[in-house]
Amino acid sequence: MLNLTGLLMTTRMFGQRLMHSSAIRLSAEKSPLFKLRQRTGLAYNLCREALNKHDNDVDEAEAWLKAHALAHGIQRASKVRDRSTREGLVCLSVSRENNMTTFVELNCESDFVARNQIFRDFAISITEQVAIGFKNSTSYKLPSGQGLIGGLKPNEEQINKLQDQIAPLISKLGENIKLSNAFHLKVTDPDDATRLFGQIHAQAAAKSTDLNEISAGRFGSIVALRLGEKASRDRKQLQLMGNRLCQHVIGYSPSYIELPDNIRKHLEAAEKEKLENKSDNGEHDDTYSDDESSQSSRNSRDDWPSIMDQTLIMTDDLVVRDFCKNNNLSIVYFSRFECGME
């Protein structure tokens, strides 16, 4: 026969234990130590020390912990500042309107840290901060760009704020970390016919916001295009064309838009001599028409350092010059970036 008295007593005791455990948990969640650990994610002993120093004032303890982390990071940074930093990420932020790009290079010592998610997230975060703060930047004149785009550099106050964020990261990841470069490019074309595009290759991280597309990786490029009167204004189509030219810059690494006349003269003379030597040696194929021979000659210019003379990446015979002409576009500026390169 079931012992109802014993069952009732057991149930009552179990219920009391549950209520007691819940009360302990609720009490713990209200404790300053729990709140501080939840806010900072730092170790128990550090949070307890901070609370002891500030009479259990959570806000004061949190401020002290942040200052402590910063100071510790600065000390660590001073110890590792002479170490070489050739790894890391190059980052680009491109505005939705394609009228502003922001470039940031964040370097570290090893590929191991460069692949760390904390480092990657920080690189994206710091690029977003630089992009948002462009209004307080200092302008500088670009050596190229035909006056259609201008350069901006973060001011000293902005850089100092960014450096303050890097110090705790050094403490956390244990390597020297440097903000090697940061700048903006902005369209200054009075006719509003110029667009800026950016592309990252070997992408490691990305973020999409209402204002910008941000990405980070090993290689990157920026291309500025001026739209002719008959050029498409469709944003999606322009983005595809801009991205293709950015990919070309990363892959081919050109040095010029158009070759200076003195260099072109020598390269054309060398090209002509090479064709004549082939003809003298009986290597000329009479089955080729004049147009095909001309096309073959143009394709041999892929090793020329001018983007307009090269065959567009991922095509067999479409020269960049013809691609731009067909789409009524002009390249007015480009830059290529590789992490760790001067």
From TrEMBL:
It is found in: Mitochondrion. GO terms for biological process: mitochondrial translational elongation. The keyword Protein biosynthesis applies. Keywords: Elongation factor, Mitochondrion, Protein biosynthesis. One of its GO terms (molecular function) is translation elongation factor activity. Residues 103-340 form the Translation elongation factor EFTs/EF1B dimerisation domain. Residues 273-287 have a biased composition (Basic and acidic residues). Residues 273-304 are annotated as: Disordered. Pfam families: EF-Ts_N (PF25025), EF_TS (PF00889). GO terms for cellular component: mitochondrion. Its main location: mitochondrion. Signal peptide: none annotated. InterPro entries: EF-Ts_dimer_sf, Transl_elong_EFTs/EF1B, Transl_elong_EFTs/EF1B_dimer, UBA-like_sf. It comes from the Eukaryota. Associates with the EF-Tu.GDP complex and induces the exchange of GDP to GTP. It remains bound to the aminoacyl-tRNA.EF-Tu.GTP complex up to the GTP hydrolysis stage on the ribosome. Belongs to the EF-Ts family. HAMAP family: EF_Ts. This is Elongation factor Ts, mitochondrial. It comes from Aceria tosichella.
